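Researcher: We plan to redesign the surface later, but first we want a full-length starting point. Tokens attached.
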């Protein structure tokens, strides 16, 4: 796109495979890249579709004032001659560089708007807790809810725990950031800390937000309306406890390491079916959950970066969308047929990923905001990521040794009924189920992992089997 001005769809790249195939796909594409323009200056701006994921209704304001499930906490242990003053100056420069870090949010006539401030004060707090080694306790002491009406929605703290031994804590609200933005911000922070220079920024998040109000997503809307023409099936797993009338966020995790021979079976699926590990593991998870709930239709949600426009690649803010992935693993259906179905549904979902989940909520569950007991549209989130073994979690910088600190208390927060997360390292996979402890007992989740292993054990090398043959007795 950078050289041709043309953006190919996911399916074009997936099926193009070769340079020749991609070149052929380019010839048939109409339309050219159109950049995002600067928005006019005004006091308030409409929030973006990504931000509406968190604040589409007034009652969400209430819980975001007291709840921390939408916080993004981070911590880094730094050993060496660290300068608190240089770090504070770097953060102040970032505040001036990125408007979204100087933005507050306001409820006006039932709608949420954002306001950019010219100046905000952000103190980088400093403490000395010499000899302290309980990082999780320090993190819990640092984390607290944000008042969305007061910028900045970001805070930092430096704690000295020994001679040339420090911990940097950072926290911000999801309405101003996401995973990509956090990585970009840290990269810029360390560049500024070391005295480096940053390229000029042409656009700010408000420019993107205003642009989303003008773009047409009629074709993508048509796809989703047709795909769910019979409605979005709700997967209801059997719960051990009555569902609370209002959502609670108490959670826990259970992680298992899958035997290498079982992981290899799924790798084999990828090769035979020309599908990605994401598609293959999602297919296996759908088989498990559908049979566990005796449901013929399975819908799971999964986040995507949302940075489909070139101008957003280095922009600070929140861009994520959540996609709905569906499948119908009927017992008599052949496994190959089901795998092809999931592959095609995944490709089409990514092809139409700009259509906001909040718009689907309005189409299919317009009264969902009245039900405070569960999220709209789906209760299970699916994730897959590659574990790089820590190469990105530990590095040297200007005489400093920097190491990411794991925030264990985050595992005790459950945003969804269930999160199904696969991680790959050197060809071997782990499965982590994060579950709401107000709904499920640990033994129920353990039984799910046992059933999942049995499904993988029954996979035939040639995939010549129906789905019923994979499903074990509960």
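Model: Full-length starting sequence:
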């Amino acid at each position: 796109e950078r050289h041709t001005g043309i953006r190919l769809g996911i399916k074009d790249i997936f099926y193009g495979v070769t340079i020749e195939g991609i070149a052929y796909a380019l010839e048939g594409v109409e339309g050219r890249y159109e950049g995002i323009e600067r928005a006019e200056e005004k006091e308030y701006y409409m929030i973006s579709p990504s931000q509406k994921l968190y604040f589409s209704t007034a009652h969400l304001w209430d819980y975001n004032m007291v709840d921390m499930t939408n916080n993004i906490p981070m911590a880094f242990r730094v050993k060496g001659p660290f300068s608190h003053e240089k770090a504070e100056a770097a953060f102040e420069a970032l505040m001036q560089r990125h408007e979204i870090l100087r933005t507050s949010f306001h409820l006006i006539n039932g709608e949420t708007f954002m306001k950019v401030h010219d100046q905000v004060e952000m103190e980088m707090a400093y403490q000395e807790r010499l000899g302290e080694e309980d990082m999780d306790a320090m993190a819990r002491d640092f984390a607290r809810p944000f008042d969305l009406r007061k910028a900045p929605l970001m805070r930092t703290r430096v704690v000295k725990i020994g001679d040339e031994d420090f911990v940097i804590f950072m926290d911000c609200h999801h309405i101003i950031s996401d995973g990509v933005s956090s990585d970009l911000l840290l990269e810029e922070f360390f560049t500024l800390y070391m005295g480096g220079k940053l390229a000029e920024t042409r656009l700010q998040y408000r420019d993107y937000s205003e642009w989303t109000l003008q773009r047409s997503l009629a074709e993508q809307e048509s796809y989703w309306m047709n795909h769910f023409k019979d409605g979005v099936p709700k997967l209801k797993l059997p719960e051990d406890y009555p569902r609370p009338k209002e959502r609670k966020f108490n959670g826990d995790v259970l992680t298992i390491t899958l035997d290498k021979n079982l992981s290899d079976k799924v790798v084999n699926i990828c090769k035979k079916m020309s599908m990605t590990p994401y598609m293959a593991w999602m297919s296996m998870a759908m088989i498990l959950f559908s049979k566990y709930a005796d449901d013929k239709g399975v819908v799971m949600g999964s986040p995507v970066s949302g940075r489909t426009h070139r101008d957003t690649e280095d922009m600070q803010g929140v861009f994520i969308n959540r996609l709905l992935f569906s499948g119908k693993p009927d017992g008599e259906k052949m496994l190959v047929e089901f795998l092809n179905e999931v592959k095609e549904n995944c490709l089409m979902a990514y092809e139409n990923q700009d259509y906001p989940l909040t718009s689907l909520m309005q189409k299919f569950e317009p009264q969902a905001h009245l039900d405070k007991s569960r999220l709209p549209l789906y209760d299970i989130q699916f994730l897959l990521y590659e574990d790089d073994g820590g190469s990105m979690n530990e590095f040297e910088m200007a005489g400093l040794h920097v190491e990411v600190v794991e925030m264990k208390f985050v595992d005790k927060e459950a945003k969804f009924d269930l999160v199904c997360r696969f991680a790959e390292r050197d060809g071997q996979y782990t499965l982590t189920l994060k579950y709401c402890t107000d709904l499920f007992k640990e033994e129920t989740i353990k039984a799910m992992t046992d059933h999942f292993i049995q499904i993988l054990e029954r996979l035939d090398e040639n995939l010549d089997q129906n789905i019923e043959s994979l499903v074990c007795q509960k």
